[in-house]
Specification:
By secondary structure, this protein is of the alpha/beta class. It has nine helices and nine strands. The strands form two sheets. A six-stranded mixed β-sheet has the order 3-2-6-9-8-7. A three-stranded antiparallel β-sheet has the order 1-4-5, covered by helices on one side.
Length: 230
């Protein structure tokens, strides 16, 4: 049995307004066996396309290698745009050593609600996947239940948007009305994994855009979707 621990602590600053929430990076990141084009940071796998999307959206000319410069580039982008990263899984066990979310057992979650209470400027969570089993939204729903909270639908169009009211952790200096007003929005982005390409290909919007431009592909579709939130 392989104990898969998250190798990176949450990356959050006092002025962070958006938080990227995934599950775990591939096991090789936990044991320090990176590939040539991997970056030693959150979403650093070259086969996870999040930074490729961001690079395309903002023309950042990011490096994709093991260098400290590659890490610094990503941190600088996050800080400048008030974006943080806090994956929801702290650790899990695996019988098969791979990056499959479904392969995780004995899962320990991070206290995302606790971080939201600690950093009051955060108003949006960006899930790197939907509500499929062992995905970030799936785990977050379970996490919210432990606080007696739930997600309410804002939009069922992909990417699906929900929201919830977060009670203030310190109510001594606030009125009851002020406590109830902190609304956190969640956005379930289409996963960057190759497995999601099949579901994308079935989406009417993708089919419409593909019909207009035969060169339009699933990478372009994600860039279009992600650009609204990054």
């Amino acid at each position: 049995m392989f104990l898969h621990r998250h190798p990176y602590p949450p990356f959050i600053n006092e002025d962070t307004t958006k938080l990227i929430v995934g599950t775990l990076p591939p096991p090789r990141f936990s044991v320090g066996e990176l590939l040539e084009k991997d970056v030693d940071f959150c979403y650093g796998s070259y086969f996870n396309s999040l930074w490729l999307f961001i690079d395309k959206i903002h023309n950042l000319n990011l490096k994709f290698d093991n260098s400290e410069e590659a890490v610094a580039q990503r941190k600088a982008f996050l800080v400048a745009n008030k974006i943080g990263i806090c994956d929801i899984v702290e650790s899990a066990e695996r019988e098969k050593i791979d990056a499959s979310d479904l392969g995780m057992t004995n899962i320990k979650l991070r206290n995302i609600v606790g971080y939201l209470q600690e950093f009051p400027n955060i108003n949006t969570l960006l899930f790197t996947g939907g509500n499929s089993k062992n995905g970030p939204e799936y785990f977050f729903r379970k996490h919210l239940k432990t606080y007696g909270l739930k997600l309410d639908v804002v939009s069922n169009e992909v990417p699906r948007i929900h929201q919830f009211e977060l009670p203030n952790s310190n109510t001594s200096d606030t009125t009851e009305d002020e406590v109830s007003r902190r609304i956190i929005k969640t956005v379930s982005l289409t996963s960057g994994s190759g497995a999601a390409n099949i579901s994308i290909s079935r989406m009417p919007l993708y089919q419409h855009l593909k019909a207009k431009n035969p060169k339009f592909n699933t990478f372009d579709f994600r860039v279009l979707q992600y650009s609204e939130f990054f």
